[in-house]
Amino acid sequence: MADMQELVQRLERAISRLEVLSAESHRPPGDCGEVNGVIRGVAPSVEAFDKLMNGMVAEFLKNSRILAGDVETHEYQEDRNDLVISETELKQVAYIFKCGKSTLQIKGKVNSIIIDNCQKFALVFDNVVGIVEVINSKDIQIQVMGRVPTISINKTEGCHIYLSEDALDCAIVSAKSSEMNILIPQDGDYREFPVPEQFKTAWDGSKLVTEPAEIMA
């Protein structure tokens, strides 16, 4: 999904450039004149358009066709605490984009969940067979009711993950993120464990060894 978002941004920049080329042309696109019935050349805007259609647009349409039908999308939701996906399938991907101050519940079992560019967003889900990804977000809360093998946190500030008894073997993968906490159920309540943000790496004679760094007071 991150690749798709980057592709859309590149596409928008390319279209803007195409509009500039068209505006700079003194003749209609493609009207380059003819000599003995042969077109002398191709207008810059036409050439740019051809490259765009054969490159990024074709890639975007290909990816869109691949994703169509299997992606449940929630975008730009604000101040909503009643968002629910109740009819789910094993192959389904839930993509949450730019939502804020909202809560989403996903029932059943899905393939994966992606939270992208969200703030003050809470997610509650039953089961995920693949991965839950949090990207470019801030102040996220996730509660696992069933099982999930992997949760990935990338470029995110503030992420609290409540694991269920069945999800204690979940792997947490993080990069370029801060204020991450994993809450483990104990005696009817949750105990909070911070995810390390600082690491030290040392050479042991044969390889590099990296481990969490202890902050000295």
Structure, explained:
A hairpin with a 2-residue loop joins strand 14 and strand 15. This protein is of the alpha/beta class and 217 residues long. Helix 1 (2-24) packs antiparallel against helix 2 (44-54), helix 1 runs antiparallel to helix 3 and helix 2 packs parallel to helix 3 (56-67). The radius of gyration is 24 Å and the shape is globular. A seven-stranded mixed beta sheet has the order 4-6-8-10-12-14-15, with no helix packed on it. It has a six-stranded parallel beta sheet with strand order 3-5-7-9-11-13, with no helix packed on it. Strands 1-2 form a two-stranded antiparallel sheet. Residues 34-39 and 60-69 have low confidence and may be disordered. It has helices at 2-24, 44-54, 56-67; strands at 34-35, 38-39, 71-75, 83-85, 93-97, 100-110, 112-116, 119-128, 131-135, 138-144, 150-154, 157-162, 171-175, 178-186, 189-194, 199-203, 208-212. The longest helix has 23 residues, at 2-24. The chain contains three helices and 17 strands. The relative contact order is 0.08. One of its GO terms (biological process) is actin filament organization. Belongs to the CAP family. This is Cyclase associated actin cytoskeleton regulatory protein 2. One of its GO terms (cellular component) is cytoplasm. Residues 44-195 form the C-CAP/cofactor C-like domain.
